[in-house]
Amino acid sequence: MTSTSVDYQKILNQINQEFIDQPRSGKVASYIPELAKVPSNKFGMHLYDLDGSNYCFGDSQERFSIQSISKVFTLSLAMKVMGDKLWNRVGVEPSGDPFNSLSQLENDSGIPRNPFINAGALVVADVLVSSFSNAKAALLTFLHEITGNPQIDFDPVVAASEQSKGYRNYAMVNYLKSFGNIENDVEDVLDFYFHQCSIAMSCQELANAFIIFANNGTTIGSEREFLTGRQVKRVNALMQTCGFYDEAGEFSFEVGLPGKSGVGGGIVAVHPDRFAVAVWSPPLNPKGNSALGMASLERLTTLTGFSIF
Ligand code: GLU
């Protein structure tokens, strides 16, 4: 099947109809107090095709907290500024452990398994704090440039909410620093990290931002290259193997696309050379991934026949 022979809007409508009235399984994240306030029935999806067409349903234009999805943006920026030296400080292996686990760091001498678990994302945050005089502004500029949308911003209320309860991340960054894998003041690294996680974006904006990972690092329309083909290969490989905490195997098995989830209930996935798609439903399964988001993407790849496998 070619992209053009698939009626994406019809398939998205079908997914919406299949799930909209079903009772939601899973639980909205509550360890960040602000996230617990988000209504559990929110549900939206947006697919951005490489030909520039957009397809959507439901709450696809409402912004939510992207949380760990931000790790894909910070990794991309760190790869640009640090090149292959980044891999001396963070690995590229799936962890098989929960996203906020501290246990592997002891055996691995403070080198996190990959950039998408919290320990790895904190090292990436440290790289950015070292590389820019204002890392938060640099991250927003990167997002504004890849999307052409200057409205994307942090949510300071969510950032403060996570900071007030961020005990594990405080422990983790101090532990990393004890191994010499954090250069900056831990407060500066955490301030950056809590802000990156607080970024608010809609499914539409996320699909737009992720199109560069489906298009060899280049935006569509303006055709600006932000990452090389080699860098995109690596980001997509990491999303495929490490993008869903200790459920990356299950996501590959059921959906078959590189992607990244966040505890705000968002998931973004890409089909290289075809599309980027984002889905949002806040209740999370026991592994911390949006239960309905995963089910919806499984239906998308089944109904279209488009997975990378
Ligand atoms: N800010 C969250 C944390 O560090 C991100 C977790 C996630 O989305 O996986 O706990």
From TrEMBL:
Which residues are substrate-binding? 68, 118, 162, 169, 193, 245, 263
The protein's UniProt keywords, in alphabetical order, are:
Acetylation, Hydrolase
Q: Does the keyword Aminoacyl-tRNA synthetase apply?
A: no
Cite the GO molecular-function annotations of the record: glutaminase activity
Gene Ontology terms describing biological process? glutamate biosynthetic process; L-glutamine catabolic process
Catalyzed chemical reaction(s)? L-glutamine + H2O = L-glutamate + NH4(+)
The record's family statement is: Belongs to the glutaminase family.
Describe, as the record does, how this protein assembles with itself and its partners: Homotetramer.
Query: What is the protein name for this chain?
Result: Glutaminase
Query: Could you tell me which species this protein originates from?
Result: Salinimicrobium profundisediminis
> Which taxonomic lineage is given here?
Bacteria, Pseudomonadati, Bacteroidota, Flavobacteriia, Flavobacteriales
**Underlying gene:** glsA
